[in-house]
Write a structure and sequence with these properties.
Length: about 100
Amino acid sequence: MCCTLTFDANEAYRLGLVQEVVPPRTQFERALALATTIAEQAPLGVYATLESARATVREGFAAASGALVPKVAQLFNSDDAKEGLRSFLERRPATFTGR
């Protein structure tokens, strides 16, 4: 026998199933703002974050977290990491290249 469980957005937020609840008819604008923020980040970091999240789903938290440290060390040696530090010190927006 199957049952149906329904709940609203605020309950989904309370349960930790979603990170944010926005007012009705503002979802697109908020999603676009989040996408813009992500697009402004270093591409290698964004890809690494996505891969880590996917690895957590596929292989579990322990396996994904074990693979994260070597990946972060690799990212710290990238041109984008150097650009991120330079832009921070120079107080300007970073220009990332994905290298």
